[in-house]
Amino acid sequence: MTGNENAKIGGVLLAAGGSSRLTTPKQLVRFEGETLLRRAALAIAASVCDPVVAVLGAEKEHAEIEIDGTRVRPRFNHEWQTGMSSSIKLGLTELLSMEPGLDAVLIALCDQPFVTAHTLDRLTARFRESQIQIVAAEYGDVVGVPAIFAKEMFGRLLALEGDKGARDLIRDPDASIETIKIKEAALDIDTFDDLDRLRTLETKS
Asked: Which alpha helices (H) appear in the chain, and where do they start and end?
């Protein structure tokens, strides 16, 4: 497939979850002087993605403060407790209302503290070269987000239900997908063990 160096790629930062396994809001966990949410917002804001939105839910008021001053636009998901699919659909719908001509959407999480703008731009660059349906991060035995979905996949993203995230589409054997090894995406903060690992890394840095 022919590349398109001018492909328009919007960004959705998923930050609505209630952190049920962590029992403390992961969005507000601090690492190296910043909350995980602010680190993620600064990363996606510094990427080539445009426009960019953060979908908020739990801890809405505090979360809005954390993305203040960035170009990331907050959007509140009133149905955040129904699962990740509602946040993906809201984020993509909002992007398309701002930029109907989007060629692709990048989906990122707020709890991968080592994912940077450079990380995200590696994905966008590969998409612009290939124009393939999905470009996803590969780390360890996992293929997942951050990931980019071409506009041909928008309908399927908007059809997600319940707690199904974008990874279900990435695992579809019929999807056209490329992966990029991104080891910095391997640590996401879901449990106390993850948080302990993060604290240990912070102490060593």
From this structure: 36-45, 60-67, 84-98, 117-130, 154-158, 167-170, 192-204
Q: How confident is the model at residue 156 (pLDDT cuts 50, 70, 90)?
A: very high
Euclidean distance between CA atoms 175 and 134, whole angstroms: 8
Cα separation values, 71 from 21, 35, 42, 61, 149, Å: 30, 17, 9, 17, 22
Q: Which of 22-31, 70-79, 89-98, 132-141 has the lowest mean pLDDT?
A: 22-31
At 196, list the tokens: 């302990």
pLDDT in tens, 99-136: 999 999 999 999 999 999 999 999 999 999 997 999 99
CA angle 184, 46, 185 (to 5 degrees): 15
CA atoms lying within 13 Å on the CB side of residue 122? 17
Structural domains in the chain, sorted by start:
9-204 (3.90.550.10)
- Sign of the dihedral through C-alpha 99, 100, 101, 106: positive
CB-neighbour burial class of residue 2 (10 A; exposed 0-12, middle 13-18, buried 19+): exposed
